[in-house]
Amino acid sequence: MAWPSLSPSELLFSISCVYLFIYYFFHYFVSSKHKQPTVPVCWPVVGMMPALILHIHDLHAWVTGIFHVTHCNFVFSGGWFPGMNLFGTCDPLNVQHIFTSNFQNYPKGEEFSDIFDILGDGIFNSDGDIWRTQRVKAQKLISHSCFRAYVATSSRDKVEKALLPFLAHATKQGHAIDFQDVCLRFTFDITTKLIFGVDPNGLSIGLPTVPFARAMDDAMASVLFRHGPMVIWKLLQKLNLGTEKKLANARKVIDSFVEETIEKRRAEKKEMKQIEYMPDLLSSYIDDNETGKVDKFLRDTTVNLMLAGRDTTGAGLSWFFWLLTQNPHVEEKILDELKSVPKSFTSDGMVIFNPEELTKLVYLHASLCEALRLYPPVPFEHKGVVKDDMLPSGFLATPGVKIFISTYSMARMEGVWGKDCSEFKPERWISDNGKLKYEPSYKFLSFNTGPRTCLGKHMAFTQMKAAAAAVVYNFYFEVVEGHVITPRFSIILQMKNGLMVKVKQRNVM
Ligand code: HEM
Q1: Could you tell me the distance, in angstroms and rounded to a whole number, from the CA of residue 389 to the centre of ligand 1?
Q2: H or E element: which one contains 405?
Q3: Where is heme bound in this sequence (predicted)?
Q4: pLDDT confidence bin for 1, thresholds 50/70/90
């Protein structure tokens, strides 16, 4: 094969292209590792996409670095990729404006519901009247005193019958365990019980595979991929390939679990002839005759609540325990506080607390808030724009631009949380008189802010406190030497490599 002959000008042009390529490769892809983060270069056609792809493995840290140099706001150009032009912000004033003051102008939007179509028309995925009606109903049920009591007893039961025995077994075995997996199973079991009235017992010795849990994990991993260019995932969806195939399979498993459970629950209710009160949310929705709820509604509602409640609480709990291993002085203080709380004992002699008593503890609450601040289980959110609107930072938001809000980065901005923003300091939540300090939700964004504030905050704290108190009192953890803790790029902020620990029995004097 003969080499094509080039004219001198073509040769010069080709050499220049190669030179430029090598220069930029070294400048941005190699030497940038040793440099302070900067705003990514905007290339013709592909915009800033190369930098995004290069940093996808450490996205949160990278984005945070950019926010440091751009003072909380920056424009990301996705070049010719549709849906990839973003305005990124972690500026509390913008957040307050978007989520509260001009809430109507920033819906989740059609693109969001396209990406999360697994959620159907549920509360997470809807805007306007459909969202409002569901929110009113869900709020009424979740804040009802009977449901709250059910949350407390279910959490205590799971701690007593599953979490503590599992950890006691692990101490005897002496093997390292992935405590993140344990936390996720703990909250998965409780959430399934609270929503569907059935306990899948995923947290038990041997850690069995629960197909419904696996399907939800697969679904979320595939949905994450949909945050990239739409053309790619739409094509995969058409061809039923890769992540889209995985998502379609996961949907089948989720739908058949939900369908079967709804059927069973209906049958059980008929048998009981409404005499006995069933406290799970599904039963309450089935009872709600006024709107003649149909299975599609029940499916969408329960799947949305599952997504909202399970991994968020489990992930928050895992980060909390990891932070304790790194900050033994905080663990000591929690232990000191627990000493004054009335205790009960399990049949194996382990200490367990009544969730009601734990609501009074200031330091435990402050430590959980601090963990949720530094490692918010929902690390980023995005919103659409209805009409032109000037944000407090001076950016003109226009329809077609996606607003990307990083909760993870906001926690790490000195201008927002002070010079010690990156430190784990529960004390920042406690005022001089020893009471909990109020922080506005547009600054402590972990549970969202404005009309779409999380409905499960109380429920999440009940579960986390029940687990945290009993585990800290009975056990302590040693992180396996050399185990690297780093966030995974996922919809819910989890640890990429899990939390590998050795469990040790604690004897409190
Ligand atoms: C530590 C645990 C939790 C955290 C950090 C958390 C955080 C959040 C966040 C950030 C949102 C807004 C998401 C968005 O709009 O895209 C949200 C919404 C929501 N959360 Fe939670 N959540 C937690 C636990 C729970 C639990 C246990 C439930 C109970 C099922 C729950 C129910 C909801 C619901 C129903 C919404 C939708 C509210 C709406 O759009 O009006 N959450 N949560």
Answers
A1: 27
A2: strand 402-406
A3: 454
A4: very low
- Claim: this prediction has a pTM higher than 0.70: yes
For the Cβ of 123 lying below 6 angstroms from any atom of ligand 1, the answer is yes
The per-residue pLDDT for range 301-319, each reduced to its tens digit, is 999 999 899 899 999 999 9
Tell me the C-alpha to C-alpha distance, in Å, between residue 306 and each of 1, 157, 298, 300, 405: 62, 19, 12, 10, 23
Inform me whether the pLDDT recorded for 3 exceeds 60. Answer: no
Q: Are 184 and 314 in contact (CB under 8 A)?
A: yes
Contact present, 486 and 497 (Cβ < 8 Å): yes
Query: How far is residue 151's CA from residue 356's CA, in Å, rounded to a whole number?
Result: 11
326, two tokens: 């790194």
Q: 124: Cβ below 6 Å to ligand 1?
A: yes
Q: What is the pLDDT of residue 83?
A: 78
Residue 155 has pLDDT above 50, yes or no: yes
Which residue's alpha carbon is nearest to atom 7 within ligand 1? 447
Cα–ligand 1 centroid distance for 449 (angstroms):
10
Determine the distance separating the centroid of ligand 1 and the alpha carbon of 207, expressed in angstroms: 27
168-218 pLDDT tens trace: 999 999 999 999 999 999 999 999 999 999 999 999 999 999 999 999 999
Ligand 1 site, residue 155, Cβ cutoff 6 A: no
User: What is the Cα–Cα distance from 150 to 120, expressed in whole angstroms?
Assistant: 27
Evaluate whether 148 touches 456 at the Cβ level (below 8 Å).
no
137 CB less than 6 Å from ligand 1? no
140, 285, 304 from 126: Cα distances, Å? 18, 18, 11
Ligand 1 pocket member 309 (CB < 6 A): yes
Q: Does residue 454 have a known ligand-binding role?
A: yes
pLDDT above 90 (res 80): no
Q: Is the CB of 314 under 6 A from ligand 1?
A: no
* Residue partners of 221: CB distance under 8 A and separation at least 6: 243, 246, 490
For the domain made up of 74-505, give the CATH fold: Cytochrome p450 (1.10.630)
Whether 125 lines ligand 1, by a CB cut-off of 6 Å, is no
pLDDT of residue 452: 97
Q: How many CB atoms lie within 10 A of CB 266?
A: 15
Residue 399: both structure tokens together: 């329809």
The answer to whether residues 466 and 156 touch, using CB atoms and an 8 Å cutoff, is: yes
Map residue 389 onto helix, strand or coil: strand
